[in-house]
Design goal:
Length: about 575
């Protein structure tokens, strides 16, 4: 069998320089650093290298689209198109490059920070740099200074002089400290071996190789491949996507008129990338998209011309994806049908794929906004309720994209028909009722029910306030604004039905036995029987108000008199009717 790779020996100094000039593509230096929350891994990495321990192989993929021409510019890479893509070893090389070259990394919150590792030469130990190591003269507070070009001899003498001002040093200690610092500086010569995969190998095989040799068992996704390509071939696009994601997490300041900030979804770069390729190429399977973007033609050969053409299409379409008017108009569609915040979103895919459909209708077919918002709202509701994109989402969505058609009539007809086919009488009368028989906290049916209460303008149970007001993310209180309450309290069921709080937990916590109350009422009700607390609370309201509350909250007039199983069965039917009523009001 032909060997698909060759081995090449490097040292750390050469790798850092190759990354700096652009010969090695290291996209993670511009993405959130996965090790950031486990920064001790960086400390341990340097400790292992200092002690001469092995730190594993690297896996590189030789680039099929190589170009040796150079850019002119202070901050630009000398090599525009890198020779190798780093497939396995991105975290290790990001950590090494950031420390050796004193470069900033991105935190998971997309803030720029430098990694600070401290070193104690007297005993050769490493620590994550903090205020204590900054103050302690025994430590080099940040080892990045060792490779700043100051000079080994000069730095060692300066460190020894500073330490001598604090305490006496023996000749043996001076020798130990000098040797330790020099040995740390010399890790630039630490050897590493890279497995270099042939450029003719396809991305699926590379992914399989990665999984088989990676001792951490970390999954390498096709989105990872494409983000790597964006970093290599279209850095401006990657930055625009990342900035969009950053903005979605932070409320804009007073000077920002438009922003992607919202309370429904916090997309990651691969989410927006999935949206972009779905809109541009009608593709949802990332493995196919990656092959397209590498410039692989029908003859299974790589074409730089084809790659440039495909990237040109993405460049034309990205502004439509990240257009905040498009984004916010779409999100208002979901808010308008009751999905007011992230708590009610059970499927990120349903949101993203609905956004693609919205964009196709708006940007490609020029459908009137009121018609488009209505059909997209229905599509999102159907997708969420049926879990359309919970299993094999790429396959299903790509099939959906191919069926949408190229005219407004075809687009609207297929969406309406699909919605009708999936939400027929059997769904409302059988499937949905059966699906509500669960204790899952993030059940899409439960979320749909509370979204329906928002949409229909329901009052909170035993309250003058509206459910929609309490789901408003702008309302902030120390306790959760709404608290789940058992309609048949847990202790009541244990005492009166003989339930075991552990064995019967799923039955006690049935969705149909929960409602949301303002926390004040929840505290007051406690473990009273349903009849006890109902007799107390109903006195605060008129008969009409009570009847309206019971109707909205799917409670029979005599709910407190029913056997528990009868109550659950009856409430599930009524919850289904509330969800159905809201859907047909869209």
């Amino acid at each position: 069998m032909a060997q698909v790779f060759k081995t090449t020996d490097y040292d750390i100094g050469r790798l850092a320089n190759d990354i700096e000039i652009g010969d090695l593509a290291l996209p993670d230096i511009q993405r959130p650093f996965v090790w950031y929350k486990k920064i001790k891994k960086v400390r341990d990495l340097f400790d292992s290298i200092y002690k001469g321990f092995p730190i594993g192989y690297l896996l590189f993929w030789e680039n099929a689209n190589r170009s040796d021409y150079k850019n002119i510019g202070f901050d630009e890479k000398k090599r525009k198109i890198p020779r190798f893509l780093i497939i396995d070893g991105q975290q290790r090389l990001t950590a090494l490059f950031a420390v050796l070259k004193d470069k900033e990394i991105l935190t998971p919150d997309f803030e720029k920070e430098k990694i600070k590792i401290a070193f104690k030469p007297i005993d050769g130990t490493f620590q994550v740099g903090d205020a204590a190591t900054d103050r302690d003269p025994e430590y080099i507070p940040n080892i990045s200074v060792l490779w700043s070009g100051e000079g080994d001899y000069f730095f060692i003498n300066k460190f020894l002089s500073g330490l001598k001002e604090k305490r006496e040093l023996s000749k043996e200690e001076e020798k130990t400290i000098s040797t330790s610092i020099q040995n740390l500086i010399n890790i630039l010569k630490y050897p590493l071996t890279a497995l270099e995969i042939s450029p003719e190998i396809d991305e699926e095989t590379v992914s399989d190789i990665f999984v088989r040799i990676n001792s951490q068992g970390v999954s390498l996704t096709q989105a990872d491949f494409i983000l790597t390509l964006l970093s290599v071939f279209w850095e401006e696009g990657r930055k625009e996507i990342e900035q969009f994601c950053i903005d979605s997490r932070k409320a804009p300041d007073g000077n920002t008129k438009y922003s992607s900030f919202n309370h429904i979804i916090k997309p990651d770069p691969d989410d927006m990338l999935r949206t972009l390729v779905g809109f541009t190429f009608n593709r949802a399977k990332m493995k196919d998209v990656y092959s397209v973007l590498r410039g692989r033609n029908d003859d299974n050969e790589f074409s730089e011309k084809l790659r440039e053409e495909q990237f040109a299409l993405l460049k034309d379409d990205l502004p439509k994806i990240t257009n905040n008017t498009n984004w916010q108009s779409f999100l208002k569609t979901l808010i308008g049908i009751g999905y007011k915040n992230e708590e009610l979103i059970s499927s990120k895919n349903a949101v993203l794929f609905s956004y693609v459909i919205y964009l196709i209708g708006k940007e490609k077919l020029n459908i009137e906004n009121h018609k488009l918002q209505k059909i997209v709202a229905k599509w999102f509701s159907m997708s969420s309720l049926t879990g359309r994109y919970s299993s094999s989402p790429e396959t299903i969505f790509e099939s959906d994209l191919h069926k949408l058609g190229t005219t407004e009539n075809d687009f609207m007809f297929w969406l309406e028909k699909s919605i009708s086919d999936n939400l027929g009488d059997d769904f409302w009368k059988i499937t949905l009722i059966n699906e509500l028989e669960t204790s899952s906290a993030r059940n899409p049916m439960s979320n749909a029910y509370f979204a329906a209460l928002n949409f229909l303008g329901a009052p909170v149970l035993f309250s003058k306030r509206m459910v929609s007001d309490l789901y408003d993310p702008s309302i902030k209180v120390k306790k959760k604004r709404l608290e789940k309450h058992h309609i048949f309290p847990r202790n009541y069921l244990i005492e009166n039905y003989g339930f075991d709080k552990v064995k019967d937990k799923s039955k006690i916590n049935q969705i149909a036995n929960f409602t949301f109350l303002e926390f004040e009422e929840n505290i007051e009700i406690g473990d009273m029987s349903p009849k006890e607390y109902f007799d107390i609370l109903k006195k605060r309201f008129t008969e009409q108000e009570i009847n309206e509350m019971l109707k909205f909250h799917a409670l029979p007039d005599n709910f407190y008199e029913l056997k528990y199983d009868e109550f659950l069965a009856e409430r599930r039917k009524r919850m289904s009717e509330i969800i159905k009523k809201a859907f047909y009001k869209i």
